[in-house]
Amino acid sequence: MKLTPLLSAALGLLLGFTGTTPAKAAPTPIAIAAAADLRGVLEELKTTYEGKHPDVQLQISYGASGSITAQVQQGAPYDIFLAADTGFPETLQKGGLVTDDGVFPYATGRLTLWVRKDLNLDPAKDGLKVLLQPSVKKVSTANPKTAPYGRAGEAALRSAGLYDAVQPSSSRPGPPKPASSPSPRPATLSCSSPGWPGWFPPTPTQPCARPA
User: Which residues are paired to 121 by β-bridges?
Assistant: First the structure.
């Protein structure tokens, strides 16, 4: 996965305070809490950074931004918090739980609609309206309460006028209510499952089938 220059620069700035320790000293640990969709980028960056700075050990924990925020409020000893939006860090800032440098954006996220390839749907042509097709039985989003792109997925459905249309109804056939999960990646393994034809992950995300 290619690292974005902005994210690399941001982390370089955040981690630049670390000094050089004696050659035989144990690496200085830096605890980082990060939104789960950053795993692919950060694992690559961790290898690169530690290779250049053997005196530093990056200890990265992944989870939903809302869950990490709650952990920090309860005293979790993280040095750096890379959230999926600025809202959760700003909540911590208001509570006096961040440094004087405050909160700043390090990247721009984009929402993606994925559907199973075997459904022969074309979201590039039809957009979100593909979710109204009879073959789409379930729509999955991350939990809007803990994952910012879960809120973004819900907002996209509402903006397109489709949120109510995908709600369950005993009087008509159609897709059931969008499913959400406390996990920030509720459908990573469900891309190939008949039960989850459509979902809203952040970009980039784990690979899965995409319409031709």
Answer: none
